[in-house]
Amino acid sequence: MTAQIALFALFSGGLVGGVLGLIGGGGSILALPLLVYVVGVTDVHQAVGTSAIAVALNALASLSAHARTGNVRWPCAAVFTGGGIIGAIIGSSLGKLVDGHLLLLLFGVLMVGIGISMFLRNEANADPDVRLTAVVAPSLVPRLLAAGLGVGLLSGFFGIGGGFLIVPGLILATAMPLSLAIGTSLVAVSAFGLTTAANYAVSGLVDWPLAALIVAGGVGGAFLGSRASASLAGRKRTLSAIFAAIVIATGLFIAGREGLAMLH
User: Residues 128-142, buried b or exposed e (16+ Cβ, 10 A)?
Assistant: First the structure.
């Protein structure tokens, strides 16, 4: 590994962590395109496996902070994650079989969809008191398992933490408010990332030194992002909108680039 690649990896990790710290999620979706287009990982499948472990470890670091503030609904997280791990195993196994250009093309389309969903997010019907109890379990557990399975499939297939898939999935299944959904989602992000990374690692598709640099950069970025978040608390909606626009633009770029590559 050259010094330039190491520098780009630290920068990429810092950018991912910075976004996570600043707006509370979403940075992980940048990990794969950064590895491919900035760091220069030529094997798309290795980039997927490497980004998965980096995202999982960064999510674990963020989870501890959210758990201390009581923003994790553990029973809901356990059921959602249980269904999602099965999905992540299936999705990551399928992802390894797909051509790299097609995988990136589909990932670009997914980014556009996620960016649009960020603009449409609505908390009007949120239920801050949601709990998984014996009374609501017959209706809530099937919804959590189904949402977890679907999100886990996509998360494993693309090697992303899937926070911006998991958060809407949790809100759809339980009506919990955004603050609780973000904290609870980190349990699933960590589990899906580790599951996907393990599946790719078995095939030798994880660059461990590169993953370590991404994580190191992410820790520093998350620290700076969290500090900036405190002073920009009143502008989080604007920051989220700007990030959503960046996600859409990046998705269009990836889809266009890989679509042209497949035509030639």
Answer: eebebeeeeeeebbe
